[in-house]
Design brief:
19% strand; 6-stranded parallel β-sheet; 5-stranded mixed β-sheet; alpha/beta; 22 strands
Length: 652
Amino acid sequence: MALMTMTFMTDVFRTISSCIIALFCCLLPVFSITGEHPILIISSYNPDAGRTSGNISDFMEEFQRLGGTNTIALENMNCKSFSESPLWERRMVELLSKYQGDNSPALTVLIGQEAWAAYLSLPDSIRGNTPVVSALSSRNAILLPGDTVDLKTWMPESVDFFTDFPSSPIKAGFVYEYDVEANINMIKQMYPGTKNIAFVSDNSYGGVAMQAYVVKEMQKFPELDLILLDGRVHTIYTICDRLHELPENTAILMGTWRVDMNDGYFMRNATYAMMEAAPTLPTFSLSSVGLGYWAVAGVVPTYRALGKEMARQSYRLLTTPQDSETHMEIIPNETILDGKLVKEKKLNITGLPQPVKMLNVTPSFYEQYKYHIWSVGAVLLVLLGGLFVSLYFYYHTKKLKDELEVSEGALREAKDRAEESSRLKSAFLANMSHEIRTPLNAIVGFSDVIGSTYDELSEEERADFVRLISINSEHLVRLIDDILDLSKIESNTIKFTYSNYSLKSIMKDIEKEQVVKNVPEIEIKAILPDDDIYITTDATRLKQVICNFINNARKFTEEGYIHFGFMVNPENDDSVCLFVEDTGEGIPQECQKEIFDRFYKVNTFKQGTGLGLSICKTIVEHLQGSISVESEIGKGSRFIVTLPFKRQSKGV
């Protein structure tokens, strides 16, 4: 009953609105550029968005420069996802009804596909005869659905503005023309064995309209099967699963991906996830999405700023109202290729549609590495700044703590603690001076060598120097991380976030990270039981502990293996044991009791601050666990962390 009432009210609203605006349009005189009536700009998106605001700003500036005196009225439809598309027609009616009589527009400007579609979906009686300029839209559109349509399964028919709307009041503007046929022919030329086309589109009007057009155009290629990966029924995660399951001889054609079925907005990181899900399948782009880092090629519109050109067309319409011709300009397409991928895959690119633009062509040395150089400099500045800030907070916190604890009755004890603290600080500073200077000297030295003798070095020598710079940079990052963690521990500000996690998933994540840094002489492998174990813990801190153990093992293991994993505690079924074992040089028995003390180092000639294992012990204690070590000289070491399955609340 409520649904029937709502439908009835909607119909009544549409009828009344149609009558009002139809009457208004009939009485509307022809206005020239006198400044009497405003120019109404209806934007699909938030006008604060960079692309939209840029075009509107250019439009207003150019229109004023040309001598236009009309005021500008800006309205925003605030369209987000296709899920709300049944509301857009009503929004357009409401916006048009605000401008009647003396306030009627001399010209209407539509920006974006949603405003374009909402306007085309209106009956002629509502649209009236006010001249319209449109931009940032496609000539191939779909009419908006009604309230009763199931948006997730609805397969609309693609319509062509030029053939299906010959009497439209849209008299000027700019439209994109996505060339599906050219893209499919390019796929067949580069990958002759292609049997399937997987088209990816999102839950936006542009995505649904583009999908409808692709379905229509693919009828020209009956030998190819079309697989639709529709954002209306998928999230980024399920899309990635589908991409991973695609059959062989499939080419991916990217439409657009900005909104998923849950109306969640995604940017470039979403296409990176898709790229990882289907790394071996060739990918092409219909709208420039993915070009430059994933897609091999694409015939796409030559996107450009249109604000000033829209202003010139608007000025012409207002100054020559007798001109009844339609001046819609189709934005030309261009073929964009990823030069690196084309070269690697040895693809046939002869006879492609012109013009052709190449991306990722090898630049000069400076152009190739300038961002790396700038990034290294910025990272060093940030790291040094972080170091100084950390040291400041460390000393400041220590000083405040000492001052609060000092009392007249414990003067001697306080004096001893201060002397010991001073000794540790001196040792810490001496160690820090060496630990920081060593990687910094290496980074600066190797960078100078590369810069000054680049042409004299072989490719292998340059790669080796870059690898050494990367290793020393990573060491410097770990050093700063240890200092920051030490500062948080000292100030009791270290944070823990607890949830239920799979240990097998955690160990596999660590294995993926560590294998990337592996060297051939050492096998780094996760030894996992068949059955998974879930525990309540902080996954980030637990990974930090295991990774610290593995990094520590790397320093003392020249060959052999580093294994890590977990098992149910054989001595207590309510806890689990996590381990990291290696075939390194081992730890002397007399040093094993002190190995977890702060600043303690078994071998002072090895890199490190002596903080890593101490921080691991503190983290494990916060997780209500225990830490131990088993080691034998010449055979290796085994570090063990014992944790409860469920963390006990304080006071229990």
